[in-house]
Amino acid sequence: MTLDGQQYTDFNFALALKDLNYKAISRLAVMEEATTAEQQQAQMQDAMLALDLLVAKGATVDLSDLSMMTEQGKVNASLLLELKPGLARASENLAALPNKLVGNINISMPKGFVSNEPQLAVKVPELLQQKIITEDQDSYKLTVKVEGSQLVFGSGLKIPLSMLSMLMMH
What we know:
It is a single chain. Helix content is 29%, strand content 36%. The protein is of the alpha+beta class and 170 residues long. Helix 1 runs antiparallel to helix 2 (37-56). The model has no long low-confidence stretch (mean pLDDT 84).
């Protein structure tokens, strides 16, 4: 039960992180703000090395089930992102990263749930018009495949992966 009276049940969360270089992640996680230019430069070099280690062998994030039951119906989401191995010195070639990424993103939300969430409801008309989401009688769906450096939506719309940050800002 949330503070605003919404009730959610049957919350499921299944996440698997595969082939991650935990040493590299730890190096990135413990970085603190540097106070001098020399410290900042050393920190940047350490971050670049950690990124290179993280990317070189690839990794997979598999959120196979993120779901819950709402008063309006079931909300379902899944995400599978794989960073293919084989990109050496990624920090020197960040533009090549999107070409190593493949995966799927699937989200389904009941229309009643979306209409009760003002931040979601206000975006629906634009997302439908742009063919980023689709709808059926009962729900809105986001289906995305990550292929090469493109996002391929369920509607067939294709956009460069680099545009994802611009979509998030709207």
